[in-house]
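re: ur msg from earlier - yeah i can do the cytidine-5'-triphosphate complex, just paste it... oh wait u already did. ok heres what im feeding in:
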Amino acid sequence: MLHGKSVLLIISGGIAAYKSLELIRLLRKNGLTVRCILTDGGAKFITPLSVAALTENKVFTDLFSLTDEAEMGHISLSRETDLLLVAPASANILAKMAQGLANDLASTVLLATDKPVMIAPAMNVRMWQHEATQNNISILSQRGVLIVGPDEGDMACGEYGPGRLADTEEILRNVKIYFGKKSPLADCTALVTSGPTHEPIDPVRYIANRSSGRQGHAIAAALANKGAKTTLISGPTSLPDPAGVKVIKIETAQQMLTACQKALPADVMVCAAAVADFRMATNSNKKIKKSNGKIPVLEITENPDVLATISKTKKTRPKLLIGFAAETHDIIPNAQLKLKDKKCDWLLANDVSEESGTFGGDNNTIHLVTADSVENWPQMTKNDVAKRLAERIASALIK
Ligand code: CTP
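and the outut:
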């Protein structure tokens, strides 16, 4: 199961670092290729030479090493591996990961990676139980970092309690579970629309809305995270591209429709974009000028409805078609009408009134409307909405 897979093992400072030598031996015995980064702290407990001898690979230690960067830059190091394993993970490296610090090779690689990360914490019991460490652990866990241990027992410092590095066999067992588990959406393709559209008035002005794209981008990331081959068609936003997602950037509603039609077929499509309903009736390729107090009349026309158009096209209609309903009042009845009108399978209705703070904000309160049910979700972050939706999609598609 593990042959052909590779692990980047990050050994941070702590007395448990000596156990990572045994861990390297076990990982290799099970067919994994192991590369190591040894932090300055780690190198106080074990030597690069013993790590190199056991891995039969070069050991990386220095962020600013010219030779290392020439051989394999720190960005490639973070990406050309199947799993990053931090064992032992000291309180210090956990804090750096939680805060996104990048002041040495290990923390830089952990920030630059788009690969899954597993940690096996090891530290003194009081350090482990400190609120700061516990907060860092919950941040990392919410971010999807896999956590093994720590164990409870006698510690090298003479105290007793949780904080001991998990058994190396237990770490190996978790690595095996990780590689053995097939992502639930591994055989599925997903298409997501996100962000606002910009409809030009003239070469310098446009009609737009307040959508940040956060919800749509989070959904694309969550689907990709579950293994779906995901394409994101995004209007103009200031967000970074989600890792592992093919991103196509467009400006107008018409461009969004064309890009979606090109990207189909897909097993599931989520239309989270706040597409502008209207555009200018005629294109002005010259800036509209003020002329002696005469106010220009802007004639607008209706844009195509991306979701409704795709739901009507039988040949390429995704198996599961999901829309959003951005409402400021009568949320559920309006959403039920939209579900019927647009002939989609699910509609995620949300309150976008000014008081709700949904547009541009971090949170969202969703009502999942289907032809025969309404499910009310509690207020959640947009990331949690995305994860919950991805779970629901996975169980609907893999029946
Ligand atoms: N939508 C779309 N193309 C449009 C307008 C909307 O694909 N031109 C999609 C949105 O992505 C969303 C759903 O339709 O999934 C509902 O969008 P919403 O803005 O809530 O509703 P509208 O259809 O624009 O209706 P209204 O503005 O009257 O509420």
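cool cool. Residues 330 and 351 are 9 Å apart (CA to CA). ping me if u need the other ligands too
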